[in-house]
Amino acid sequence: MSKYINNDALFDGSYFRRVIADPGFPRQRELPADGRQKLQKLLEIWHDIRPRLVQDLKDSDPLSISFAGLPPTVKPLKHTAEAVVENDFIIPVLEDILNYSCDKQKTLLLDGLPEKEKKKKKNDRPDIILFRDKKAHNSAVKKAGKKSGTALSTSFCRDADFILDAKKFEKGIGSDEDRDQTRDTSAAADIEQIDRYIRGCGKKWGILTNGRCWRLMRAGKKQEHLRFDLVMFLEDLLNQEGVLVRGRINEKSFTNENLEDFALFYYFFGHPAVGGGYLDIIYNEGEANNRRVSDILRDNAYKSVQMIAQGFWQYKGNGFPEKPPQNQLDNLRELSLTFLYRLLFLLKAEAQKLLPMQTAQGAESLYAKAASTKAIFFYLQKFSSEDLKNMTEGFNRLKRLFELVNSGGDYEVPAYDGGLFDTETHAELEQLRLNDHVVYEILNKLIYLDESEPVPYADLDVRDFGDIYEGLLEQRLILEKQGQEWTLSLKNKKGERKASGSYFTPDSLVDHIVRETITPLMEKCKRDPNKILSLKILDPAMGSGHFLVKVVDIMAWHLTLNCAPIDKGVPNDNGPNEYAYWKRKVVESSIYGVDVNPMAVELAKVALWLHTASLCKPLSFLDHHLKCGNSLVGADLRHAARPGLESRELNSGTVWQPVENQEIQEDIPAPKTKKKKRQNKQLDLPFPINTELFSGILESVSAILKRPSSTPADIKSKHRDYFQTVNFQLESQRLLCDLWCAQWFLSQPDKKGISIYESPNGLYTRLKKICGLTDDAARAEAVEKIKSHWFIKKVETARKQGYGPRPMRFFHWQIEFPEAAFTEHGELKPDFGFDAVVGNPPWDKIKSAKRDFYGAFNEEVADSQGTSLNALISEMEKENPTLITEWEEYEKMTVNMTTFLTQCNFYKHQTAVVDGRKTGGDPDLFRYFTERAGHFTCEGGRVGLVVPCTLWQGQGCTGLRRFLFEKCTISSIYTFENYRKWAFGIHSSFKFTAFTFIKQPPSENHSFKAAFMLRDSQILEGLLKERIVMLSAYYIKAVSPSSLALIDNKSDGEARFMKKIHQDYPVLGSKESGWNPVYIRELDMTNDSWRFKTREWMKDRGFTQVLPKHQPDGTWSQEKNGPYTAILPNNLPKGGEYWISADPDWYKQRGYIEKQTQINNENKTFFIYPDEADLENSRKIDSQKDYRRIFPSEIYTALYEGRMINIFDHSQKRYLRGEGRKAIWEDIPISEKMLQPRVFVCKMETGKDAGGGPRIGFCDITGATNERSILASVLGQGSLAGHKVPCLKIDSYEKTFILTSIMCSFCSDMLMRMRISTNLTLNFLSNLAIPRYSDIPQKTKLEICRLAAKLNCTTPELSEAWNTVFPDNPWTYESAERDLWKRAEIRARLDAIAADLYGLTVEEYAQILTGFPLLDRDQPTLPGDFFLTEGSEKSKENGRENENWIETGWGIFELKPRSFITRDFALKTYMEYKNYAKPQKLDEWYKDKVNLDPEGSLSRFRIGKIKDLIERVEIAKNNGAVPYYQLSIINCDL
After folding, report:
1. What is the pLDDT of residues 70-115, one digit of tens each?
2. Are residues 1464 and 1510 in the same domain?
3. Last residue of a domain, which of 456, 474, 491?
4. What is the pLDDT of residues 1296-1344, one digit of tens each?
5. What is the count of structural domains for the chain?
6. Domain's final residue, options 774, 801, 827
């Protein structure tokens, strides 16, 4: 490893070390032919200027601390002008040695920066812009023009390699500062400036240098850098024997090592660096290596947890039973995770040298040799596997190491005193043991990636450990049988034995959220460090602390740039030392976090400590700011005067119901007095608490926090005193608030419960009186007595229950963080006192889901549904009866949680009335956290969150949107697709948003930046500005007046178009539209699944199958397959496959059990298969949902499911086999259309008047990123639809066909895909802008009906619909159009009519047609036609050989050959419809007329050699392309 080059986290560490060690990796580092001469010239340049820059010291009197980049016997001369080193050293190196062409002091407008970062004065002047050669330089100058004094930076620097900023030779560039004179600028400011230049010029790489040190930087990376000490290298060369002879440089004396060191400088700063792609290769391959390491470590950690748990379970002395119950396994999982993270902490701390791995002289320390993790591993390596199974010495050494780290002692190990190692906190873990075979295997997994490659813990970020934690969160420890042996496995909700993918928020999003949220707050504090440190920043669902770590970085960097240290003895160097100082100050002063999982809290503490660590410094005191609790469930002191529920007598019995008129007192006046003297009065609450209590607590807390945290003793005393001050003194208030919450979770409205909460002498009243006691001793004594009450004990036990999360650890914010809730006088603040809230809260629904619960115990659960799922669960419960109780507890907790959140009166924006209907749906955690963030924040405070895009478009979020848009000031909204899973390890179609807002009402004309459907985070870095749309309340109300839903506009042009459409056309749900559809959901696929019958089930029970058959002569007939003796009803309907149950006598004769039931107040007879009669007393048979019922002589018709529906097609696919995710369906050729579903249902049994009359069915599972978003068809008579195929019932077939045609048009589809996320709901459809029915000419109505009928009426179920349109030509199998090209012509015609009804110009229609990127993916392509698919450096590097990639100023794209036959054909048809001249040069027409440049950043299509529109269509048709249809459909019709 060269001593002149230092990589400070710019490149992946382990990969970089390999690069430096091997000159041939990743490609050969070869100097040019004149490399030796270049080194000679470089040394001559330095030798000549050396007397003007440095002063030699005596060898006997070297500097105790040398200047960075210089030997200790040399120091810089003072007061040397920057121009000297720049002009006489740096530029000669650049031009004569590295052969760059330099542009100096060019005045630039940094257009690559976000607007807020641009200076008002246009005088940005990077010192030097490096061009590869004179040609590139001259080209840039020519483009800029001679007359213009200021050039656009991104244009001027497009072909530049580097942006370079030069500093005085004597001035540090982030490693040291001038120590002898007052600084003129800071190192931090210099770094900030060069980063600004790099990003502003649209470049990746830049250089900051003072001549002696060359700092290589990447855009956006301020702390991370690579430094080459050039002058140190040259000085060593000059002092090398034989190099300097009589004042001349002898190049023959250069060694191979000298040339290799020079090659490093040449490759990292010369032509190979950027122009040759060397830096990008190392950076990207290093990133890939980091991902590889993280993936392997995540998997090894997953396996290690299993081994730890298995080892604890199998160790006989631990006392585990042979088959532990699940609650014991859940506890074992937590103990195992704690053990794992102790090991990971040690390995990381040792790698960072936070434990004494080396002596002061750099030798291996005694700790490293005798006590470290590796020492234990190497000790165990000496023994055989069999010996290790009978040993525990290695485990004993690990236990001693844990204690050593916790308390300090031998081997000069300082005490870090973190809760992770605390023996009292983890008392149960202290009692468990492992044999050494397990210890050895675990250490092997965690120390090595494979047999020989060690895990580079020093290079891993603390966020990587958070990623491991997030990946283990959803895993559950399960006892299962493998062969004849019982074993323990970690399984996810799908029953898979594997580590989860990353759910960790990408750092670019975290950085954006935190920076946007807290920077304005810090700027308001000016340069006052105490004001900045007094800011309170909260993450209410902090996980392992990712957002809080970023808060520390950004606040500390701001303080380093702008403030002097407030403590004595701290270097005011604006460099790394001061930055590290501020990080520790921020951690103790400003960081607040809460998580429902206690392990997460411990890991967040560890992460923050590791990130701010100093050798021999204990873990920072964080107990007062990082706490465990349920952020959503807690009591407000202003509510606690009385219980939140009261008993009421109903016909069904006594129930708890919310207390009426229990409003939080919103406007509590702040204290007017300015006197510092404490006011001894009663707190303005519904029950008495002395204000002196709270003011005294705040004074004590402030004093505690001001005490030093230098030693473990400091930390222990802080912890003890804080607990005594806050937890102890407020214990009665906490118990009362716990009691208030527990009523929803633990209390029944029986005699005991009513006594506790409503009796004048009940527990609640007694505890409330205790809270009013002003004498601390008397209050403490009363609390101790009342804690013996059985219900208090029950509540305390419940607070500790749960595996992982502790849902009933109620969190009372005013009590937990009194400094944020009370003034210094002990008065309750008018609003909560956090200045900012940031985070990525949970996205889960609060809903009991059988698949999620049972899935971990059996992988088949994920692939089962309906009756099959219920049957599988029944079998699982037979094998493991405890699952029944666990499911009931899980379901009860979910119900209680939902009830609390909806009744507690804290969350007032979760529902809203939209168009006369109250919004509903399953509650989402992110919705409650979003509203809670508003509760936490003080007036004028800021919030930044990452949540699902449902927030902006879901009907259930309407109330939240009204709160955010009307009561708060939105700062920015960005929405993203999870394309190629670039952000999260969830489905790639999922959309999420990063947004920020201020808690204050918006000004009248407020507007904010927004961008939608982004596929990476480039826009957050100032790129893709054309995607930014300015939104206002006026615009939002114009396009979504009732719901305030946002639309996914990709440009200002799209926004103007949407505004015009919504101004000119009513929405479908309005009376003005004239359509009057009725939205219905006929059957629920889960709740009604007991009604669904499979073919196998019916075949075994005497049913007859009726199946249409296509005869050789072209006619169709009905084929019946069933019992010979069954009597069938007369006049069977025509149609697709259906089944008929046998007559009553058939069932009686075969011993079926006859029973009666009522359906719609009519008695109905049904039969039960004899073999199923014994299930009568099973708890799984619900008399109201008895799946065994057979109604005789009834027709069981097809149940429509989502896969059966497509555009103008109600029988798109037929079911073959399988269930759930493994269900297999296939396309039905247009010539063979019939209904062939998965299950069937008896309409009579449903008791619903559904399945008849004109109705449109559509797929509700869809997305804005799908090929098409609205898949709708007229449905057949008599067949019901599952809830995944909701229906619009219309009063006539004419309206039905016309509305279907408009809904299926490209115009309506585009309007819809700008709104939806993953579901097409009633809310979205109701807000679809649509032409008025009365405005459509009668002639046009008739044409639409006839065309739509030819497309839709392919089976007998739609014969009635056909006959209403063609009364003189009754339906036959030949009625529908079955030629695909002719069907395409009809669809293009209908699309043209719809576009005309919307009043679109040809150019507007052309713009719309480009918004469907997945069309025609598998069609034959035209030469040179491509679609651009977003990629990344990672995907490009991992691509296949035949892939074609391009890199533009707005991203990296894969060029995929693509047909555009549908777009071209639909455009051509509309041009013909509008008598518009068809373009011969389609690319130029798009650029000039549509204002969409195919080569520009808003376009994802490229037009090849064939540009004439008519020729494009004809050639594509001759090549076998068919518009509107996928190749799979085309092929199955051939």
Report:
1. 999 999 998 899 899 999 999 999 999 999 999 987 788 888 887 7
2. yes
3. 491
4. 999 999 999 999 999 998 888 778 888 889 889 999 999 999 999 999 9
5. 7
6. 827
- 1246/1383 Cα distance (integer angstroms): 37
Q: Which residues pair with 1281 in a beta bridge?
A: 1200
Mean pLDDT of 217-233: 92
Claim to verify: residue 898 and residue 934 sit in the same structural domain: no
Residues 43 and 183 in one domain: yes
DSSP summary character for residue 412: G
pLDDT in tens, 852-904: 888 888 888 888 877 778 888 888 888 888 888 889 998 999 999 999 999 99
Same domain? 1054 vs 935? yes
Cβ atoms of 166 and 210 within 8 Å: the answer is yes
SS3 1252: coil
Asked whether 1050 and 249 are in contact (CB, 8 A), the reply is: no
Which two structure tokens, joined as six digits, stand for 397? 């050494």
| Tokens at 441, concatenated | 């295997």
Provide the pairing of β-strand 969-977 with 1007-1014.
parallel
Count of other CB atoms within 10 angstroms of residue 775: 10
* Distance of alpha carbon 867 from alpha carbon 569, whole angstroms: 73
- Which secondary-structure segment (H or E) carries 1501? strand 1501-1502
User: Same domain for 863 and 920?
Assistant: no
Question: Do 962 and 860 share a structural domain?
Answer: no
Amino acid at 600: A
Per the CB < 8 A criterion, the answer to whether 1497 and 1449 are in contact is yes
| Cis amide linkage into residue 1041, ω under 30° from 0 | no
Cα dihedral across residues 1207, 1208, 1213, 1215: positive or negative:
positive
Q: Is 324 exposed, middle or buried (0-12, 13-18, 19+ CB in 10 A)?
A: middle
Q: Which residues have C-beta within 8 Å of that of residue 24, sequence separation ≥ 6?
A: none
Distance CA 467, CA 541 (A): 15
The predicted pLDDT at position 1022 comes to 78
In angstroms, the CA 570 to CA 1191 distance is 86
Query: Nearest CA to 637 among 592, 688, 675, 586?
Result: 688
Dihedral (C-alpha) 559, 562, 565, 571: value to the nearest 10 degrees?
100
CA distance 50 to 943: 54
Q: What is the C-alpha to C-alpha distance for residues 1187 and 1168, in angstroms, rounded to an integer?
A: 9
The whole-angstrom separation of Cα 801 and Cα 805 is 8
Distance CA 366, CA 409 (A): 13
Q: Which two tokens stand for residue 673?
A: 């007095």
Domain with 76 in it: what CATH number? 3.90.1570
Q: Which residues contact 658 (CB under 8 A, 6 or more apart)?
A: 644, 645, 646, 903, 905
Phi, psi of 516 (to 5 degrees): -65, -30
- Tokens representing 74 are 């040399």
Range of the domain at 139: 33-237
Q: Are residues 692 and 804 in the same domain?
A: yes
The angle at the Cα of 806, spanning 629 to 602, to the nearest 5 degrees, equals 65
pLDDT in tens, 754-789: 999 999 999 999 998 998 888 888 988 999 999 999
Identify any residues that bridge with 487 across adjacent strands, giving them in sequence order: 480
Burial class, 670, CB count within 10 angstroms (exposed 0-12 / middle 13-18 / buried 19+): exposed
Beta-carbon-side half-sphere exposure of residue 223 (alpha carbons within 13 Å): 15
Residues 164, 105: one domain?
Answer: yes
Residue 49 lies in a domain: yes
Contact 194, 217 (CB under 8 A): yes
Residue 1200, phi-psi category: left (phi > 0), alpha (psi -120 to 50), beta (remainder):
beta
3-state secondary structure of 407: helix
Listing DSSP states for 1112-1144 in one string gives: TTS-EEEEEES-TTPPPPSSPPPSS-EEEPPPH
Q: Quick check: is 1269 in a domain?
A: no
Residue 108 tokens read as 């630039």
Neighbours of 1520 (CB within 10 A): 12
- Please indicate, yes or no, if residue 411 is contained in any of the structural domains: yes
> Is position 102 within any domain?
yes
Q: How far apart are CA 987 and CA 98, in angstroms?
A: 47
